[in-house]
Amino acid sequence: MLHNDVLRRLRYALAINDTAAISIFKLADYDMDMAYLHAIMKKEEEEGYLPCRDKIITLFLDGLIIKNRGKQEGQKPGELAANARLSNNDLLRKIRIAMRYKDEDIIAILNLAQFRMSKSELSALFRKPDHRNYKPAGDQVVRNLLQGMVKKYRSGGKGASTSSVVASHSPATKSQRTAQGKNEGTARKKENTAPKKTDSPSNSVWGKV
Question: Annotated region Disordered: where (predicted)?
Fold first, then answer.
């Protein structure tokens, strides 16, 4: 999967605009040029497209980790070695760390994209490459995780939360269905009266960056 697509879908899922994206790169000690950012956000068939290098997507993910978990004192973000490649497994690991996902969270988000994966299958993706149970992650896993994140965070509040997806496998009782109906009615009223969101840093999942 092209790193351009990963960056574009991550930004969309988390509602990260240009200003916030540049600030995230800055957290990883990288001064991102706006023109270059726009070029790597383009699709291959678009004029002015430039490929997003492994180093760039790594810096962005490291910036997300620092934004969410804080920067460790006395330590600089690790730079990807020259000619080194960021594997899908590494990419998934960085997203997991940045978003503080547990195995159950990732499985639930994959379910939002109609992609089923068992806990043992998922664990194999996070093993060390020399582990006997290690499995390389395919583009399909990354693509569906990003799609699930879009549904979770950008569906106007209709995306299922992790807890509700996990709980949905158990049949609801009559009292639970009644309570759920009342909650949904209240949520719809709030949604109808709530001000419309704009694409600004404050509306990002990350808040003001």
Answer: 154-209
